[in-house]
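Marked as duplicate of an earlier ticket. Keeping the data here for the record.
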Amino acid sequence: MIDHKHPPIEGDDGRLYFNYPLNARYLFKSTTGAPLFEYEILSCEYVNGEERYYLACNGAMLPVYKTIEQVELIFSFYPYEIADRGEPEELPLLDEEVRLFYNDLTKELKKANSEANAKLKGTDYFRLKSQIEGLSAPLRFAKSSGDEKKAAELMKQVNDLKSKQFEILNGMGIDYDVLTKKPKCKICGDSGFVADGHICECALARSEEIKLYNAELRLAQRK
């Protein structure tokens, strides 16, 4: 979750960046203008919605990370000038970005599913579906009773009916997965998150796509 007291920097490209750039250097001076010390941002990390910074003071790395509040406190003691602006460091993929992306993906799937079902009205697709469902109980019974011949006959009927279904779908350009709302990821069910709340591997593999999607939304909101 984003810390709204210290929201990340939104770049010109719509992406989110740390408040303090990587390798930025800040030269602190006394009230008389005499140089005192120099701080440098060595690395940044984002943990549980918190920006963390590893700093060096006069070339020596500080032993523990500093939160953004602690960095601000350090920077409030003396006046300083920016000796090196450093490079903007982009935040990692955020839970908020994943959640928005997959929620919108679900909405699009529901819309596509509704449109597909509407297109199939008046076709033989649902009649064939009903016939397939009617064969499922006899097929299970034949398998459980060891009647391999009967099971094979029923399986052939089912496959023939499914082939006719797919002919209809292909002819109308309808995706079977859209029609059945079949999730592409069996682990997260296309939610983007696994049971323990962590981002699913399928979402991590789509990090760039998800980041770009959210960046474009932010840019659109500026207009």
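See parent ticket for discussion. The two ends are 25 Å apart (CA to CA).
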